[in-house]
Amino acid sequence: MPQIIILPHEELCPEGAVIEAEKGVSICRAMLANDIDIEHACEMSNACTTCHIYVREGFDNLEESDETEDDLLDKAWGLDPDSRLSCQALVNNIDLVIEIPKYTINQVSENH
């Protein structure tokens, strides 16, 4: 079963984590199933950017993002070439290394 290696995140998983996920499950669902409480304000309907992640290893093995996801990612805090919405990126047979951004758009607007 593929593994998702989650780099340390100050609030959600300070020690980092290694979780297993079945092929075809979204990265967001896999994290939530393993008590990593990533924000997902739109309930994983591809309508916000709160579950934005960086796929540091394994990015090229994911299915390509669709136009809706790409449009949303353009609005994500801290966008970089490895950015994906975890609710749309599905686990395949390859291990992944992901990083959860320090902020989401919701947190930035709440803090300012």
Which strand order does the major sheet show? 2-1-5-3-4
User: DSSP helix count?
Assistant: 3
Strands, count: 5
The chain-level mean pLDDT equals: 92
Order of helix and strand elements from N to C terminus: EEHEHEEH
Q: Into which percent range does the helicity of residues fall? A: 10-25%
Beta fraction of the residues? 15-25%
Radius of gyration of CA atoms, rounded to a whole number: 13 Å
The shape is globular
- Protein structure class: alpha+beta
What gap, in angstroms, lies between the N and C termini? Answer: 42 Å
Task: Note the main sheet.
Answer: 5 strands, mixed
Low-confidence stretches: 108-112
Task: Give a written overview of the molecule.
The longest helix is centred in the first third of the chain and has 7 residues, at 27-33. The chain has a five-stranded mixed sheet. It starts with a strand and ends with a helix. It has helices spanning 27-33, 67-73, 105-111; strands at residues 3-6, 17-20, 52-57, 83-85, 96-99. The chain contains three helices and five strands, in the order ββαβαββα. It is an alpha+beta fold and 112 residues long.
Topology of this protein?
Layout: E1 3-6, E2 17-20, H1 27-33, E3 52-57, H2 67-73, E4 83-85, E5 96-99, H3 105-111
Parallel strand pairs: 1-5
Antiparallel strand pairs: 1-2, 3-4, 3-5
